Amino acid sequence: MTHWIILLATEAVEEGGGLFDLDATLPLMGVQFLILVIVLNAIFYKPLGKAIDDRTEFVRSQLLSARERREKTEAVARQYEQELVDVRREAQDIVATAQAEAQKMISEQTQQAQQEVQAEREKAAQEIATQKAEAFSNLEGQVNTLSRQILEKLLGPELVK
Amino acid sequence: MEVLDSLFGLSSFPLAELEVGKHFYWEIGNYKLHGQVFMASWLVIAILIVASLLATRNIQQVPSGMQNFMEYVLDFLRGVAKDQIGEKEYRQWVPFVGTLFLFIFVSNWSGALVPWGLIEIPDSELAAPTNDINTTVALALLTSIAYFFAGLRKKGLGYFAGYAEPTPIMVPFKIIEDFTKPLSLSFRLFGNILADELVVAVLVLLVPLFVPLPLMVLGLFLSAIQALIFATLAASYIGEALEEHGHEE
Q: What ipTM was reported for this prediction?
């Protein structure tokens, strides 16, 4: 079969054509190809390449800004958490001081009340004592007069002096 | 000889015929052109331009349909150029390398997928533009010019000093390489595509139905590989020319 193809080829060459028939097709094909390169560059490579590059750039910038935003959000969240912790601690402090103050006030007032009660009681005891003394002195006077009267009655008024 | 005779008997079979090396000549002044090659290449160019226009008619941020497909293609072409030329300088070579791939790929596939045989032209038949030696040599020479241009533009005449790297013994080999590069590029492509079409044609000649199909599928695969090889090699030659001295392999 190869024999036959070679035969055909050589036959064709004899007719003035042939497989290796180089002629003006070559340079014209080259020029045509160069024009195709230029045309395709204008209508294919440039616009589509630009589209691809723009998209890549867009995606990259979006990604970057998204990352930035996420970092910002995280920072804000962290800050809030920090603030929350601070505020909670502050609240605890306030509660503790309030409790302490209340405790102090309670103990002070209790003490004061006790003191007052003490003072009152002392005062009352004193009053009792003075009244007692008064009553005793009264009683003594009365006892004196009574005893004088008794004496007068028994001995007569002249003897009593 | 009997076998040969019987084969010639077969070739007169009306279902298929085989034509090799016959051209439909156009004459411009004293110059002869292969008309069938140009007609086929115009269809290829038209396909590429229409696909590009469809893709870029209404560019959107979220691609769909044709734009999506062509962006995938462009990404692939950029990948080929980037792998061979390097991140730094590949961008300006994407159009050249990419068009090489697209033109050869669509040409090769048109040879298998477009029913060229339905269009009758005198003295010849339409086929893939890449099965004409003129096309492949033109592309290969353009590749040579491209890598010389790349090297000279970047390093000036110092580019040729790179021929003596790493030792002056390399000079003759590098010079020979400059000739073998376009030769191997053009003949590889030409030979593969022509052989593929011949094999399919011969098989169709012998068994017209179904049997050639697996081979045609293989042909499609090979055509795609050839396009990729051509574009990759072109890119690698350009990349080699752009390489700094002392970094050569």
A: 0.80
